[in-house]
Design a protein that fits this description.
single chain, about 250 residues, mainly alpha, Arc Repressor Mutant, subunit A, Four Helix Bundle (Hemerythrin (Met), subunit A), 2 domains, 11 helices, 2 strands, elongated, FCD domain-containing protein, DNA binding
C-alpha cells in the first residue's frame, strides 16, 4: 500500500518503476480506476493526476471509455520526455543541441565508413529536392519552410540510419522531434535555406568520399550554425555570425 504523503508523486513513481522493471509491458491494460485505487489504497483524484502525468510523458495512453494502456518504447516516447524537460526549463534546448552535435557528428563519421550505395542515393535525392525548392523560390512561405524542415529531418535521419547504429538513430530522431519548434525558428534567419543546402552538400560529399574527419567536422559546423540562428531568432544572447561556409572541399 502507498503512503499518504505526496500521494500523486508516489503513485507516479510506483507505476513508472513497474514499467521500467517490465512488470508492466507495452500493450498491457491497467486495471480501471476503481480497482487500481483500491489495490494501491489511494483515492481517485491523485491517481488520475499520476496517470495523466505518465500519459504526458508518453508512457501511457488513456482511452476515454476504453481503458489505460502501456505504450511501446520508440523515438516518440523519448521525444515526449525531452519536450517535457524543455517545458520545465526552456534553456535546456541549448544543452540538447550540444548533445545533438556530439551524436550527429559521430553518426556522420560512422556513415562515411559504412554507408551503402542505397544510403548515398537516398541522401542525394533528398538534397536535390531541397536544392530545387530553394532555387525555385525567392520568398519562403510557412508551407515551403515546413517542407524544407521535413526534408532536413529526412536527411539527418538518413545519415543516422546509414551509421548502422540503432541507438544513435533512436536518439537523433528523438532529439530532432523534440527540437522541431526551435528548428523552425532558425529557418526564418536570413540566408538560412541556402546556407543549410551548402552544409548538407558538404556533409554528403564527405560521407560519399569516405572522409570521416571532414564528415564529422562539417556536421558540427552545421549544427553550430543552426544553434546560432536559433539564438538570433530568440534574441536571448548575442549570436555568432553564421556567415557562409568555406567552399566545398572535394573528397
Amino acid at each position: 500500500m502507498i503512503e499518504k504523503k505526496y500521494v500523486s508523486q508516489q503513485i507516479f513513481d510506483y507505476l513508472f518503476n513497474e514499467i521500467k522493471d517490465r512488470k508492466l509491458i507495452p500493450g498491457d491494460k491497467l486495471p480501471n480506476e476503481r480497482q487500481l485505487s483500491e489495490t494501491l489504497g489511494v483515492s481517485r483524484p491523485p491517481l488520475r493526476e499520476a496517470l495523466k502525468s505518465l500519459s504526458h510523458l508518453g508512457l501511457l495512453t488513456i482511452k476515454h471509455g476504453g481503458g489505460t494502456y502501456v505504450n511501446n518504447y520508440d523515438d516518440e516516447f523519448l521525444s515526449s520526455i525531452l519536450q517535457y524537460l524543455m517545458v520545465i526549463n526552456e534553456e535546456l534546448i541549448y544543452d540538447l543541441i550540444q548533445v545533438r552535435k556530439v551524436l550527429e557528428a559521430e553518426a556522420a563519421k560512422l556513415a562515411s565508413l559504412v554507408a551503402s550505395d542505397k544510403d548515398l542515393i537516398e541522401m542525394d535525392s533528398i538534397l536535390m529536392e531541397r536544392e530545387r525548392i530553394v532555387s525555385e523560390n525567392k520568398v519562403f512561405s510557412n508551407d515551403i519552410r515546413d517542407e524544407l524542415n521535413h526534408l532536413d529531418y529526412k536527411f539527418h535521419v538518413c545519415i543516422a540510419k546509414a551509421s548502422n547504429n540503432k541507438i544513435v538513430l533512436a536518439f537523433i530522431a528523438s532529439i530532432r522531434n523534440a527540437l522541431a519548434v526551435h528548428q523552425n525558428k532558425s529557418s526564418v534567419v536570413n540566408n538560412m535555406p541556402e546556407l543549410v543546402n551548402e552544409y548538407h552538400r558538404r556533409i554528403f560529399n564527405a560521407i560519399k568520399g569516405k572522409n570521416a574527419d571532414l564528415a564529422s567536422s562539417s556536421m558540427r559546423d552545421h549544427i553550430q550554425a543552426v544553434e546560432n540562428a536559433i539564438r538570433e531568432s530568440d534574441e536571448t544572447v548575442p549570436s555568432e555570425s553564421t556567415g557562409r561556409i568555406n567552399p566545398l572541399v572535394s573528397v
